[in-house]
Amino acid sequence: MERKKRLKNLSIAAILAFYCAISLVPFYFLVIRSFTPTLKSGEFYFWIPERPEVQMNARLGNLASVNNIDITKLKKDFGLKGYIDPRLTLQQLAERQGIDAGELEEYLRPFIQYNGIFVVLSNGFLKSLWGTIVVAGSSVAIGGFLGIMTGTALAGFRRPWHLFVYNSYLLNMIVPPMMVILPQYFIVTQFLGLQDSYFAIVLLHIKGGALSTMVFTTYIAAIPKSLRESVAMDGGKHYHYFWYILLPLMGTPFAIFASIMMPLFWNDLLLGLLFLSPEKYTLPAFVATLGGAYGRNFEAVFSGVLMSLIPILVVYFIFQKLFIRSAMAGAVKG
Q1: If DSSP states are collapsed to H, E and C, what string results for 210-227?
Q2: Measured between alpha carbons, how far is 279 from 24 in angstroms, rounded to an integer?
Q3: 10-residue mean pLDDT series, the chain (334 residues)
Q4: CA–CA distance, 286 with 328 (Å, rounded to integer)
Q5: Are 284 and 271 in contact (CB under 8 A)?
Q6: 85 torsion bin: left (phi>0), alpha (psi -120 to 50), beta (else)
Q7: For the chain, which residues make up each domain, given as ranges?
Q8: Domain 125-328 top-level CATH class
């Protein structure tokens, strides 16, 4: 009997290990591709390839097109003036402009060896990261608070119209977003004047969501009515019950809501492209423009994808206990 139990546990552990490995493989190869030079992007690697050295016989124009070297910045840093022929090699450039070849090589080495990271950081990554944090964080916080308020009103379906309102929220689950994107665009931009505003995206994220309504209505309905009655007996008002009794109990349902919706808000590409200018793009839109602006620089594209995933992974690692507790909510009784 003990042997069968041990064999069963080993089998479950093996299945879970295999599943974890399959899940992590794409992230593993994403890291590798983020440090694979564009000129080697056609080759397959199981590990990060050796970093390329600066080739002084490389043409300046090729470096500008493949590695996105900013020639204007290079001229400014070295005090160069006038037109520079892109057909010149780095060695020829150093000789004609009186630049020390070793100094030019040292200047370009970090940019060549970690090209993807340099291109992403130098083209507005941090600004896009901040915009994404503002949009996703505000959407989760405001959307969760509004969901709690909605759940408080609808819990238990005490009025005949409560069920109608609840089902109206659930319609969001079956209406394809692309069917309503054009009316939403005109309402937000023409009537509300929120073009090129982060608040426009937040507003569309927090509008009557089916998930928040279901999660908070179900959870609040399970809270004993005696808590509300005890507040009323002590002379408290409804807002006393809401602020001092109900809100402190919303940690678990809020974690469920946040763990599901945060990645969706973070990775929202369509609304970022539609409502924001390139200077205010959120991370998904920023990475998409990397693919268009630097179509040949695959290292920059993969680096942009990887760097956009790191912040949301950090959030999940920090709050993993809360998310695990939310996932286990209702799984164990008593």
Answers
A1: HHHHHHHHHHHHCCCHHH
A2: 33
A3: 80 89 89 87 87 85 81 86 86 86 88 87 91 94 91 81 82 81 88 89 87 88 83 79 86 86 91 91 90 70 91 82 62 46
A4: 36
A5: no
A6: beta
A7: 60-113, 125-328
A8: mainly alpha
